[in-house]
Amino acid sequence: MANHSQLNFQDASSPIMEELMGFHDHALMVALAICSLVLYLLTHTLTEKLSSNTVNAQVIELVWTILPAMVLVTLALPSLRILYMMDEINEPDLTLKAIGHQWYWTYEYTDLKDLTFDSYMIPTADLPLGHFRLLEVDHRVIVPMNSTIRVIVTADDVLHSWAVPSLGVKTDAIPGRLNQTSFLASRPGVFYGQCSEICGANHSFMPIVVESTPLADFENWSSLMPS
Hints:
The protein is built from four helices and ten strands. By secondary structure, the chain is an alpha+beta fold. It holds the Pfam family COX2_TM.
């Protein structure tokens, strides 16, 4: 989860998020190289006299045409690769449906049995000692680790957005439409997210909590949950 004064991403807990963080670093390095080159050329232009060879040089025109094209290719190829990875969902191990309401989430585990529950934020006055304010819920989403989870996202009233940053997922919840995303939690843990679409007065009070557990623990939990 995020910490105070944190400038970078949350720790990656899925392969997709690791890819996104790698692409972010790659794009930053490209941007740094471009800024350095522009700063050098600007300094050179201000300190040196321009000649007719510099102003009318066809070689320079060729360079500043080809170089931006190469930069765009170095950004586009890894970006397209990650986009295809995020959209590709092959034989998910578990399908979860998330329905946004004002201002809580409903989850349905239709693959296992008719398992459905609502997830509300725990008010600060009822929060157990050591838990996180405005982030804890009364019913967490439990998923098995190292399993491909497909999440079908929709809404019952207004626009919402189901987002868990450390898992690299963010999908709009739109009334009357089913959107889908997927993730694979690569380690056990508890991952926090929030609705990322302004949805009314209590938009800030509908958190998302995903807990990744070993498969045996997930099976025990699902067998104990009322249908």
